């Protein structure tokens, strides 16, 4: 009996050692999974510029990609197809230090405000607000640090200009660069009870325009009318003799039960050389959201925003956007836009969403082109996996 007890004690003492030794020698698991999306749109318009807005159908975004993970490392490659063109989308590597800190580097959308954290296929108003398209960034080649813990969310990015992913250095010339940060405070983030305020700031140099010899002295902003079936510019400007760019956007997010409000204001400024007047532009949007079916809104830590509603949810979104890219003091009339829209989103299941959007857009004060009044009814069926 004593021998049996002694052997049992030895085994019990040895088990933790054996288990620990086994855990130390076990390599992280490698996993890989395909990703993709298909967006199918239809639209009908009424406008005083009928030739620019014929009714039609489109598949504005098809993507295939792959995501891989190994321990604390992740990687993503995403390729898109639209209107006969193939383009690179997200291409990055990410290292997670712990539950609160990560570093991502590669080619992707860096965070600048609430809208930047949402994929283009997951915009709750079907198309992003015109102000966000005009004043936000496209994908950029760079690195982004993310801190996400408790009441606080923060990002910090350094990046090259967008053309750095498309041109060789001898074609690009002097590469433009910049940096940005997004800070958010969310003291309330319970299901059905969310309150968040945030602020994003960015600064950068002038951009590549036409050749490597132009000295990178210009900067362009632009935004289309809020539809992808027709491709028509709404506002924008190219400003010459640029020394630097600065912009910022405060954000607000509130939710109570099945109701939510989100909003951003944008300020954009281009400082110019040769004592030329600086160019300024600004815009804002607000969206009132309601879950008619689907319970209460929930919070997403990864995006520092509202989580995608659960399958079988029905959501209505009332939105308003104002964008002003005309600066009389600088003598540049890039145009102004008022847009009001109502969108219904039916989250069919985990992978499928159907959207219906009705909107009215008024573009005016743009040099060399007539004012436009556009009424649009659009629908989209999308599959994402």
Core attributes:
385 residues; mainly beta; Porin; 16-stranded antiparallel β-barrel; 3 helices
Mean residue pLDDT: 91
Order of secondary-structure elements: HEEEEEHEEHEEEEEEEEEEEEE
CATH topology: Porin
CATH homologous superfamily grouping: Porin
Report strand %. over 45%
State the end-to-end distance.
Answer: 61 Å
Query: What top-tier CATH class fits best?
Result: Mainly Beta
* CATH hierarchy: architecture: Beta Barrel
Walkthrough of the structure:
This protein has 385 residues and is mainly beta. It has one domain: Beta Barrel (Porin), CATH 2.40.160. The chain contains three helices and 20 strands. A hairpin with a 2-residue loop joins β3 and β4.
List the helices and strands and how they pair.
Blueprint: H1 2-25, E1 30-47, E2 56-70, E3 73-82, E4 85-96, E5 101-108, H2 130-135, E6 140-149, E7 152-160, H3 169-172, E8 177-190, E9 193-204, E10 219-224, E11 233-239, E12 242-256, E13 259-272, E14 279-293, E15 299-300, E16 305-306, E17 314-327, E18 332-347, E19 352-366, E20 372-384
Antiparallel strand pairs: 1-2, 1-20, 2-3, 3-4, 4-5, 5-6, 6-7, 7-8, 8-9, 9-12, 10-11, 12-13, 13-14, 14-17, 15-16, 17-18, 18-19, 19-20
């Amino acid at each position: 009996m004593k021998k049996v007890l002694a052997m049992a004690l030895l085994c019990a003492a040895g088990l933790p050692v054996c288990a620990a030794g086994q855990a130390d020698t076990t390599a992280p698991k490698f996993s890989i999974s395909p990703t993709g999306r298909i967006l199918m749109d239809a639209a009908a318009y009424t406008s005083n510029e009928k030739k620019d807005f014929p009714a039609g159908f489109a598949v504005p975004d098809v993507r295939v990609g792959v995501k891989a993970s190994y321990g604390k490392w992740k990687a993503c490659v995403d390729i898109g197809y639209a209107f006969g063109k193939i383009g690179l989308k997200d291409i990055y590597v990410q290292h997670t230090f712990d539950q609160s800190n990560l570093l991502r580097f590669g080619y992707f959308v860096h965070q600048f405000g609430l809208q930047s954290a949402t994929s283009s296929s997951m915009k709750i108003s079907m198309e992003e607000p015109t102000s966000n398209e005009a004043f936000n960034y496209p994908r950029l080649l760079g690195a982004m640090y993310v801190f996400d813990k408790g009441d606080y969310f923060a990002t910090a990015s350094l990046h090259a200009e967008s053309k750095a992913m498309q041109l060789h250095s001898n074609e690009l010339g002097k590469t433009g660069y910049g940096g940005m940060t997004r800070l958010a405070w969310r003291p309330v983030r319970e299901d059905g009870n969310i309150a968040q305020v945030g602020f994003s700031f960015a600064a950068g140099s002038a951009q590549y325009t036409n050749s490597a010899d132009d000295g990178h002295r210009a900067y362009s902003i632009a935004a289309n009318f809020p539809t992808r079936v027709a491709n028509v510019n709404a506002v924008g400007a190219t400003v010459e003799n640029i020394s630097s760019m600065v912009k910022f956007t405060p954000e607000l997010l509130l939710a109570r039960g099945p109701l939510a409000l989100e909003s951003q204001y944008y300020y954009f400024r281009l400082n110019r050389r040769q004592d030329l007047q600086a160019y300024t532009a600004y815009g804002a949007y607000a969206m009132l959201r309601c879950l008619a079916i689907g319970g209460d809104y929930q919070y997403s830590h990864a995006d520092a925003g509202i989580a995608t509603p659960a399958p079988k949810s029905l959501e209505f979104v009332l939105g308003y956007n104002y964008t002003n890219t005309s600066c009389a003091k600088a003598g540049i009339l890039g145009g102004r836009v008022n847009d009001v829209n109502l969108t219904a989103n039916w989250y069919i299941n985990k992978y499928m969403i159907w959207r219906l959007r009705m909107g009215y857009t008024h573009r005016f004060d743009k040099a060399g082109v007539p004012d436009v009044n556009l009424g649009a009814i659009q629908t989209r069926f999308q599959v994402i996996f």
